[in-house]
Amino acid sequence: MKMVTAVIKPFKLDDVREALSTIGVQGITVSEVKGFGRQKGHTELYRGAEYVVDFLPKTKVEVAVSDEMLDQTIEAISSAAQTGNIGDGKIFVTSLEQSIRIRTGETGVDAL
User: Fold this and answer.
1) 90-109, pLDDT tens digit by residue?
2) What is the 3-state secondary structure of 12-80?
3) CA 99, CA 110: separation in Å to the nearest integer?
4) Taking the model in full, what pTM does it have?
5) 3 state DSSP class of 90
C-alpha cells in the first residue's frame, strides 16, 4: 500500500477529485495549506503599501491506494492538476505500513 500526497493549486481540486473517482479511488483527504516552492511568494498592493506574501494558498490531497493502483493514481492527479505554469505542485509517494478500518476492524488493502 502507498500513501500519495499531492500539493496542488486550490482551483484544480474538483478536477483532481473527478479524475480520481473515474479510476475508482474511493476516499481522499483534503486540507487547505500554505506554502511556497520556487515561486517564493509574490507581492500585493494594499492601500498604497506593498506587502510580500511569502506563503501561497495550496490544497493538499492525500490518498491511500494499493500498489496496483499507484501508477494510475499518479497519472490521474498529474494530468488533472497540470496547468503548465509554475506552482502546479508536487506529488509525494510514501509506503503505508498498515491500514485499519475502525468500524469493521478490516486491515490492509481491505480497509482502503
Assistant:
1) 999 999 999 999 999 999 99
2) HHHHHHHHHHHHCCCCCEEEEEEECCCCCCEEEEECCEEEEECCEEEEEEEEEECHHHHHHHHHHHHHH
3) 9
4) 0.85
5) strand
Residue 77, judged by CB atoms within 10 A of its CB (0-12, 13-18, 19+), counts as: buried
Q: Which three cell numbers stand for residue 74?
A: 499518479
Task: For the domain covering 2-111, report its CATH number.
Answer: 3.30.70.120
Residue boundaries of the structural domains of the chain: 2-111
How many C-alpha atoms does 58 have within 13 Å on its Cβ side? 23
Helix (H) or strand (E) run with residue 94 in it:
strand 89-95
